[in-house]
Specification:
Blueprint: E1 18-22, E2 46-47, E3 50-51, E4 56-57, E5 67-85, E6 96-102, H1 110-114, E7 119-126, E8 132-136, E9 142-151, E10 155-156, E11 158-165, E12 175-177, E13 186-190, E14 214-215, E15 225-243, E16 254-260, E17 274-281, E18 287-291, E19 297-306, E20 310-311, E21 313-320, H2 322-335, H3 338-347, H4 368-371
Antiparallel strand pairs: 1-5, 2-3, 4-10, 5-8, 5-9, 5-11, 6-7, 6-9, 12-21, 13-15, 14-20, 15-18, 15-19, 15-21, 16-17, 16-19
Family: Belongs to the allantoicase family.
EC number: 3.5.3.4
Pathway: Nitrogen metabolism; (S)-allantoin degradation; (S)-ureidoglycolate from allantoate (aminidohydrolase route): step 1/1
């Protein structure tokens, strides 16, 4: 579960991503690039501009150049894997693509983004038509935007930007959802994800349909399904929300929560896990709220559902341990590209001396003005 293939899509519309601009979208709209659903195709569905495609498609170039689209990541973070999906584009896909990333403060306009410091994530690389083209990405910088370039033109159905969300500590309150993707939580284990990804549990907002949650296959044995996650920061969970919205005939009958602190104990030893919420009855299509009877400091939480079924969202509200909150801020600052780090320092009235000390080692506290 820790491979790049299972990391969340930082660009997806489902987590707040948007396509800021594109230089051309004559045949098919740029917004299709980040739709969560898989691309579809219906033969002989023509509009005024030609066959209707579920993707982004530009006109045929008659002069040298490159077509591009800029995506604002819904979850700023470290990019680990790119998927350029050319599904259904067979004679009109780009022969090559490249991807760059940048990090900026605030909410820049397309013109401001054009002047940003862009760093290469994927050099100009060949792609094939009607397939998912996968590319591993190195580096450890946190980006807020990516730019997808087609050389020279063509159509792309979807862009997936899989990676690790890195929260901005300036926007993380004292008590927050320790399980939220936007704060940096990550699924590290799962018994079954036959129908949908367990990362859906941690996504922002409420679900609108059953497919936006996590659902397992029907069990035919005496076991139960489960998912485990690394919290955004080790801390104390005070109350939990177990949401079965839209799961009517397939909600779990019961659920429980347990936790372990990997800083002091071996996660693989069942004896090190503490019961946070005992096995508790659930109702279909319901947002359940539970105050946890046991409040232990944990870094990982496991949700067990009995025996199987679907869950829309899991929220674990609490407070981070003091040293863990400092570590959250340190990781964020270390991951900032240099131009963004300079802007953050300037905005907090700090000089650039801290830049020369990066990467800041564990235990280093950032100036309060930088994270408040």
């Amino acid at each position: 579960m820790s491979t790049t293939a299972t990391l969340p899509d930082l660009a997806s519309r489902a987590v707040g991503g948007s396509v800021v601009c594109a230089n051309d979208e004559l045949f098919a709209e740029r917004e299709n690039l980040i739709k969560p659903a898989e691309p579809v195709f219906q033969t002989y569905t023509f509009g005024h501009k030609g066959q209707v495609y579920d993707g982004w498609e530009t006109r045929r170039r008659r002069e040298p150049g490159t077509d591009f689209a800029i995506v604002r990541l819904g979850l700023p973070g470290i990019v680990r894997r790119l998927v350029v999906d050319t599904a259904h584009f067979k004679g009109n896909y780009p022969p090559e693509v490249s991807v760059q990333g940048c990090a900026v403060e605030g909410y820049p306009s397309p013109d401001e983004l054009a002047a940003a410091d862009w760093e290469e994530l994927l050099p100009r690389s060949p792609v094939r038509g009607d397939v998912r083209n996968h590319f591993e990405v190195g580096g450890d910088r946190r980006y807020t935007h990516v730019r997808l370039c087609m050389h020279p033109d063509g159509g792309i159905a979807r862009l997936r930007v899989h990676g690790e969300p890195v929260a901005d500590p300036r926007w993380v309150p004292a008590e927050f959802d320790l399980a939220a993707l936007e704060h940096g939580s990550q699924v590290v284990g799962c018994s079954d994800m036959f129908y949908s990804s367990p990362h859906n549990l941690l996504a922002p907002g409420l679900t609108r349909v059953m497919g936006e949650g996590w659902e397992t296959a029907r069990r035919r044995d005496d076991g139960n399904d489960w998912v485990s996650l690394r919290l955004a920061a080790p801390g104390t969970v005070r109350w939990a929300e177990l949401d079965t919205s839209y799961f009517l005939g397939n909600a779990p009958g019961w659920a429980s929560l347990s936790g372990c602190d990997a800083r002091a104990a071996d996660l693989d030893d069942p004896g090190n896990w503490t019961e946070l919420l005992p096995r508790t009855r659930l109702q279909p299509d319901t947002r359940h709220h539970f105050r946890l009877p046991v409040r232990a400091e944990v870094s990982h939480v496991r949700l067990d559902i009995f025996p199987d079924g679907g869950m829309a969202r899991l929220r674990l509200h609490g407070t981070a341990a003091p040293d863990a909150r400092a570590e959250l801020a340190r990781r964020w600052f270390n991951a900032l590209p240099e131009s963004h780090a300079r802007a953050v320092l300037a905005g907090a009235g700090q000089d650039d001396a801290l830049l020369a000390r990066r990467p800041l080692p564990p235990g280093t506290d950032l100036p309060p003005a930088l994270v408040q």
